């Protein structure tokens, strides 16, 4: 009975998902409230969970169930939701099954060790001490990709982890087009020397008041605090423990305190996606976010397209002035808007503005793709990094800590992750263009602090579908258009071109 096998498969899926949810909760706790000395026992707990999740996902029982359903010839009759669940569980099973347990363990150990070496190397601007670890990580990542398999190039196996179905060869022309549009735009903006005063963002905003303010915005945007929390951590993140338990964090450690607000809006975007998945699909792919790229489209859309818009601050700037009596009285709303959107090439990705951000990602995509296909040696990485940085952004990092060592991703062995940031921006721009067509008075709504219609639209088009469609298909269905750079380039030219001298 195929129905019975499918029911059993879902049961297994829910169990694996429950284990994953425990692992995420442990991670959240580690980043927020865990005392320092809890580190060692936490590592053991997480390693055990990782092993259990791997064993269950790669289990012979799961394989038998998948084979029974797929071989029954009756998968079609189970309907589109079941087909999506079977497709995604098969994909996950294959990926885990094909990788030898010894390799999984070696990767985990190396990543843990590399992370510690990376922290120190970054602090000392000392790439040479990290290079042997990174060589090891590149070697293991290649072995992993070769074990999982790929059709075109090794990088695809890694990219597929974060963006199912996406290939490097598909991303390359998108990045090419962004580069040819954005590099000249950045040059024009820098050349125009429109000095934008951003000093008011660094005034003494009380951190607790700012967090309360952020919490108010989160609530207005539709974040359900009965199914979520907002806490503090060193780096902001969103942790979807489950659909009805979504933890977001912000950080107090910014050079501009106001950035803490944008971090909240960003993480709320991720959080709303989790909260918008359908509870009846809990614990199955249909009830899970489809990819990191789509996830990032949600956070970026709320943060940049909505949160950094003029109409958003028409509503919130007077409230900000009120929340911090006296602090912002001399600032005109227009100056504030200019400051939160200032374009300034900086060596640091996480501090980058909307225009330069994708060039940071492009640089990483090119370098990691070269590393994995043996076109670039780890030893030559810093020079390659600095060369590209100079070419794309016109700056050279003063030291490796703010250059090649700045991100944690490679230390963790997360190759193929970076492009999802830019895919997120591309999807977001495409969604933004569509929603503005369907809700013509969107700006007026935002200017009144009304977001429910926007959220309803994005829920209908994206959230409720879970992993029903692959990312590119989901966005095509939502917007009626194939993935392209036009909406993002048009948006950036419009917002930052002439107004910023570009
Ligand atoms: Mg994000």
Rounded to the nearest angstrom, the radius of gyration is 23 Å
> N- to C-terminal separation?
64 Å
**Would you count the extended β strands for me?**
3
Q: Count of DSSP helices?
A: 20
Strand order of the largest sheet: 1-3-2
Present as ligands are: magnesium ion
Helix share bin:
55-70%
Global shape: globular
Decide which structural class fits the backbone.
mainly alpha
Order of H and E elements: HHHHHHHHHEEEHHHHHHHHHHH
Question: Strand percentage, roughly?
Answer: under 5%
Poorly predicted regions are none
Whole-number mean pLDDT: 95
Largest sheet, strands/sense/barrel? 3 strands, mixed
Write the layout of secondary structure elements.
Layout: H1 2-32, H2 39-57, H3 60-71, H4 80-97, H5 101-123, H6 127-148, H7 154-162, H8 168-192, H9 207-221, E1 228-232, E2 238-242, E3 245-250, H10 259-275, H11 292-306, H12 310-323, H13 333-340, H14 354-372, H15 381-393, H16 419-438, H17 442-447, H18 452-461, H19 471-479, H20 486-496
Parallel strand pairs: 1-3
Antiparallel strand pairs: 2-3
Helix pairs in contact: 1-2, 1-3, 1-4, 3-4, 5-6, 6-7, 8-14, 9-10, 10-11, 11-16, 12-13, 14-15, 14-16, 16-20
The chain binds magnesium ion.
